[in-house]
Every structure is written in structure tokens, then in C-alpha cells.
Design brief:
With 551 residues, the protein is an all-beta fold. Helix content is 0%, strand content 48%.
Length: 551
């Protein structure tokens, strides 16, 4: 696994093994959901790298490529805003690798090629810059990682100066440590960084030396994990580090396409992930963050998505379910269940998924990209009716809010099928409730907005939509829809049949995907006026379309 560089390639150096003592392993956290796809629209990504979570559960994601921005999402992947643009002015970026959030919700974004860290308010207002190009105190030569301690001090990996710099919360230089080399306290291309919230110790992904080094809060060397390999507790190009509230460490083991959970003394706890594009798989895991409920967010860079995992050892969310009548269980901030009668206590959990049983015609999932399937299970014994209440975002549906429906995949039937179980839609609270006799998968639906007939009109086949404007001068927008998650590619060809630009290439979730073409090729060179062709191919369909570029 090579370490991406905006300026130069690097060499990976191996060291002798230093294997930590093992601890009792636990089950890996369950996959909950994912969001994102390749593209430049809000909610899409072009090589995402960093991720951070604020105290309210909002998720911030930075990316290295055009359109040079960071984005804000809810904890379930609904996009709230995007901030930035390409350039060198305040608030714009050139190759932003990592991000972090302080206790006040301010966001710090590493602007790598501009050799600075930028600070923003929680709503994207630019506040200040830290750094500038150079090798003196407080300057950077390609900063990559950023982390904060409980006092608001800011720690930055200064990659090509092979050091870490510490700043106060106001951005004043405090101290630095490190130099090029393989010895203790030395670095070869440090990338990710994290701070233990309990001890304040600083952990650095010394990626070029294929190890993680541990320091005290002022840079005093303590110990390291130097165990190259693919076994438990071994690493291959560590990418980033995050901590939960108990001081457990989560590491993106990028070269092994996985995440490992370790103790703060490098004892192995659990691991998850394999190479691929399926749920829970990775192709380039880099950034990682843990929220206050111990949900883990991983940036799956080459798949252009963020994956969310539930707390280790449990479901996507859980609630104790005592015996009694009319037992209300709040499982997750978005899900609650009321049991008519609990006979034997247990635990009720929910796992959010982006795929589920095949949906029927004429209705659309809310949201549609990616869909949300709420898989609710319980270990409690119960009788009577169950009321399930789900929360939704007003931006997730297209039609009339009062027409929303809750569907339940009823597995108690001889032939399991979807049933409309809606009892009420509380529009003032953005909640919908349904009554059932059993638990399984739930989804919020709305009537399809089209009145046309057939699978294509109902969004059950892949479809390429007309570009607009056409003809065009500056840019044109084109979209395609997928009925399910599948591999898809959208390319631009000239009249000679030569490929000019690849706009999308990868496994994308179900729903509509929109892309802008600004008449440039993959290298950014503007093309000559004339006729061009959009070519769309997916696992289930293929289509092409003409577009005319004019002076």
C-alpha cells in the first residue's frame, strides 16, 4: 500500500517486530449503514479522506479532490451542507486530507497543499488559519493529520518535515518533536494522529516506517507498535487513529483493508473489514472517528463513501427491555418501540442498512439515496401489539409529508412480504408510527411521483436521463438512476470514439446520481467545440446520449 503524496513518492521501511500483549478479543461492531458515491454533487465524494464527529452527532468529511470542500452530514448520512472551493483564499482548499472537531463544535480542516490548517465554525464560517509553508516553528511542509486534546490544544502531523507540531487553542505554536529516521521519536512520513481523551497521550501513524508511536502530551516518547503484517494486532500502513470515551483506540489498517480496535497499550481487541465494495468491506480505509455512543465512522476512500458501524459487541443501537405493560424502549435517536406486554426481559436492537428485501412497485423509500432499512430485533419475550416509531428528515422525501407510510416486512406470514402498517404521521415532530405483531425490517415510503406505467417509470430499472443544457458552453448536467446498489460507469467520448472523461466508476447505491461535465478531460484540459457522447453502463443496463459543446 503506497502513501498518496501530492508532491513526491515515498519509500516504505520495515522495522523489527514489537508485538503487544494480547487481550481477550470481542465481537466486531455490526455494519449499520453507508452513504456517498462518486461525484461532485452535495452528498457525493471525490476521494474522501478525513472524518470527524461533533457532540451532536453531526459528521464532517473532508476530501482531497475537486470540488475541494468538506461536507456536513447527520449521523445517518443526510447531507446538511458543503463548504469551501478550490483555491488559496481563506475558506478554500487544495488537497484537504484530514479534519477534527473541538468541544465547541468548531471544525479544523487540513489544507495540505496550502500548508495550513483552517478553522471553521460548526456552520462553515471561516475563523482562522494556522501555519504556512516552511520548516521553522509553526510552519508546515505538507500537513496531513490533525487532532485535539481535551484542553483544545491542536496537534498536526507535518509530513515532509517529519515531525508533529502542537498549537494552543488560539493557534499559537507550543512545541514540536520528530525528525527523519527510523529511531524512537523519529518519523518517515507521519500521516494520521489521535489523542487519548483519558491520558492526553498522542498517537502518531508513522506510515513510512509502518508503525504507530505513542508520546506524552508534550512529545516525550513512550512506546510504539511496530508489528508489520496481517495478523491480529499487526499493521500494514496505518492511516488514522480515533478513540472512544473509554480510551480504546481504533486504527485504519489501510494496507490490510480493515479497522483494528486496540487498547491504549496496543493490546488487540477486535478487527473488521476485508477488501471489496460490499457492506463492511473497504477499498482504501483512511479517516476514522468515534462518536459519544461509540458508533464508528470510517472513510472508505476508493469506494467514495463513509461506512458506519455499531458499538463493538452489540447491534446498531440497543435498549434494555424490562418486563411489564406498555414498555417504551428508545433504541436509537431515530427509533423507539413500545411493547404491549413484555413477558421476559431482554434487549432490543436496531441495525440500519442500505439494502433489504426487494421493494414493491409504485412506492419509493425515504430517503432514496441510500435507502434506510431499519432491522429491529429483540431477545425479550412479548405479547400483544407493538408500536414502532421512526424519525425522518424533511429533506428525505419528495412529495406530501402527510402521505408518508411505514412498511413492515412481515416474516410471520407463510410468504413474507411488505405490509403498510402506518397508524400516524406526526408532521410537527418528523415522526411516523406503525402497529405490528412481530419485529423485523421497517422502511419509510412515499408514493412514486410518476404516473407513467412500467418498471422504468417506477424506478425499477437503471436509466440515463437527458443532459441539460444541451447544447452548452460552460458545463452541462447529466444524471442516471439505479434501482439497487450496483456497479455503474458514466464516461464521455468524442466523435472519434476516444474516451475523454470518466465521471463515475464504481459500485453506487440505489437512487439518482447527478454529475456535471465542464468540457474538460481527465487531466483538466478543456475540449474543442463539437459533438460528444455520454455513455452509461451498469450491471443491468446501458445507454448513450449526444451532447453538443459550442463556442
Amino acid at each position: 500500500m503506497s502513501i498518496p503524496s501530492p508532491r513526491a513518492a515515498i519509500l516504505v521501511v520495515s522495522l523489527s517486530l514489537l508485538v503487544p500483549a494480547a487481550v481477550l478479543a470481542e465481537s466486531p461492531p455490526p455494519y449499520v449503514l453507508q452513504w456517498g458515491s462518486y461525484g461532485t454533487s452535495l452528498g457525493q465524494f471525490h476521494t474522501p479522506k478525513g472524518v470527524a464527529v461533533d457532540a451532536n452527532g453531526n459528521v464532517f468529511v473532508s476530501q482531497t479532490d475537486i470540488p475541494c470542500r468538506f461536507q456536513k452530514f447527520t449521523s445517518t448520512g443526510s447531507v446538511l451542507a458543503g463548504y469551501g472551493g478550490c483555491g488559496t483564499t481563506n475558506g478554500s482548499f487544495d488537497f484537504s486530507w484530514d479534519c477534527a472537531v473541538d468541544a465547541s463544535g468548531n471544525v479544523y480542516v487540513v489544507d495540505t497543499r496550502n500548508d495550513r490548517v483552517q478553522k471553521f465554525s460548526n456552520n462553515g464560517t471561516w475563523l482562522m488559519n494556522i501555519g504556512g509553508y516552511g520548516a521553522t516553528d509553526g510552519k508546515f511542509n505538507l500537513p496531513y493529520g490533525v487532532a485535539l486534546d481535551s484542553n483544545g490544544n491542536i496537534f498536526v502531523t507535518d509530513r515532509d518535515n517529519n515531525r508533529v507540531e502542537k498549537f494552543s487553542s488560539s493557534g499559537a505554536f507550543v512545541t514540536k518533536w520528530g525528525s527523519f529516521g527510523t529511531g524512537t521519536g523519529q518519523f518517515h512520513k507521519p500521516i494520521g494522529i489521535g489523542v487519548d481523551p483519558i491520558s492526553g497521550n498522542v498517537f502518531v501513524c508513522d506510515a513510512g516506517n509502518n508503525r504507530i508511536q505513542k508520546f506524552n502530551n508534550n512529545g516525550g516518547y513512550l512506546t510504539m507498535l511496530s508489528a508489520p503484517g496481517s495478523g491480529d494486532g499487526q499493521i500494514n500502513t496505518p492511516g488514522d487513529i480515533a478513540f472512544d470515551q473509554s480510551g480504546n483506540m481504533y486504527v485504519t489498517d489501510t494496507g490490510n483493508y480493515r479497522v483494528q480496535k486496540l487498547t491504549s497499550n496496543f493490546g488487540f481487541i477486535t478487527k473488521w473489514g476485508t477488501v471489496g465494495s460490499g457492506n463492511g468491506q473497504f477499498y482504501g480505509p483512511w479517516g476514522i472517528a468515534v462518536d459519544r455512543q461509540n458508533y464508528v465512522y470510517v472513510v472508505d476512500s476508493a469506494n467514495n463513501r463513509v461506512e458506519k458501524f455499531g458499538p463493538s459487541g452489540g447491534g446498531g443501537g440497543g435498549g434494555n427491555t424490562p418486563s411489564g405493560s406498555n414498555v417504551l424502549v428508545t433504541i436509537d435517536p431515530t427509533v423507539s418501540v413500545t411493547f404491549g406486554q413484555v413477558l421476559t426481559p431482554g434487549n432490543t436492537t436496531v441495525t440500519l442498512r442500505s439494502t433489504g428485501p426487494t421493494l414493491m412497485k409504485g412506492i419509493l423509500p425515504v430517503p432514496s439515496n441510500p435507502p434506510k432499512f431499519y432491522d429491529v430485533v429483540t431477545t425479550a419475550a412479548f405479547s400483544g401489539n407493538i408500536t414502532v416509531t421512526l424519525s425522518y428528515n424533511t429533506s428525505d422525501f419528495r412529495g406530501n409529508e402527510s402521505a408518508l407510510m411505514m412498511y413492515h416486512y412481515d416474516t410471520s406470514l407463510s410468504k413474507p412480504s411488505w405490509r403498510n402498517v402506518t397508524t400516524s404521521v406526526q408532521t410537527s415532530q418528523n415522526k411516523i408510527s406503525g402497529s405490528v405483531k412481530s419485529l423485523s425490517v421497517f422502511v419509510i415510503m412515499e408514493p412514486a411521483t410518476t404516473t407513467a406505467v412500467g418498471d422504468d417509470a417506477l424506478g425499477l430499472t437503471a436509466r440515463l436521463m437527458p443532459s441539460a443544457p444541451n447544447p452548452f458552453r460552460a458545463s452541462t448536467r447529466i444524471a442516471f438512476s439505479l434501482p439497487q446498489a450496483e456497479a455503474a460507469r458514466l464516461e464521455v467520448f468524442n466523435v472519434n470514439g476516444a474516451r475523454v472523461r470518466t465521471l463515475a466508476d464504481g459500485v453506487l447505491p440505489a437512487g439518482e446520481h447527478t454529475f456535471d461535465w465542464n468540457a474538460t478531460d481527465d487531466r483538466g484540459v478543456r475540449q474543442a467545440p463539437g459533438m460528444y457522447f455520454f455513455r452509461f453502463t451498469s450491471a443491468s443496463a446501458a445507454a448513450s446520449q449526444k451532447v453538443l459543446l459550442v463556442d
